[in-house]
Hints:
By secondary structure, this protein is an alpha+beta fold. The protein contains 7 helices and 5 strands. It has 2 domains: 12-39 and 143-257; 55-136, no CATH class. Strands 3-2-1-4-5 form a 5-stranded antiparallel β-sheet.
Amino acid sequence: MVPAALPQGKTPVQRMGGALLWALVAVVFGLCGWDFAAKPVFTIVGNWNVARDYREVPATVVTRAIKASDGNTYTWPAARYAVDGKEYVAERLTLLESDSLDHAANTAASAKLEAARQANTPVSVWVSPRKAHIAVVSRELPTRTVGSRIPMIIAFAVITLAGVWGFLGALLNLPAYTKLTDAGSVWAFAIAWSGFVFPLGMIIVQDAEAPIVVVICLGLFGLAGIALLWSAVNMTLKGTGRNFLKTSTVAQRQRATAKKPVARTDSVKRGGLGGHGSDFDKD
């Protein structure tokens, strides 16, 4: 039985090292993409779907307070409402898991309660028809929080699939592994770029106080990251990574071996025919 031919330039040790490296990429980007981007989006959209039949109930703004272990007292606005003669307090601002005011949606809901408290006017809260003690101040889908995670989900999913592909290709000695490694330099740059830009963009864009100029710049960086990933995927699928690598290598060699002008150091006498000094006008 003839063993399968190894991909060009790849020994079993190299393939094993490549398999471990691509597996690490798949695990890291897969877990981070799920935990920090995909899972929160699924949770938010699920909460929004559940809250679609919540009933609008009038409420009065109240101030809640708690004394922390450090001795300080912390206060925040909430809404008191009544259902079937029983009073409840809605403290949850939005459909987000966190009530941190770093999120634009939470900031807007909190500002709504604060404005109603100062004007001494009622507000509306959305109450579950199944459990009256569950209510939110706003049941709107927090599009800014969701939208800031979509690019990260796409990018990290592509990188995770590439990692799985690289792991299986190296482990099983598949021909497709050669195409992937030929585009390895582009993949490396795209992975490094995506691992920095998309998480940073997710954190900053969802911030209520993020300057619009910063958001636009991060959006452009995100588009550049998507373009890099598309180039890496395209090179891998078409198998043009080796041509790209050869072109880059040839260009580097040409630059390194390019002839430079050489200054002449011989004793060439300027002035054309004739001598010098007293022999200037003689042959």
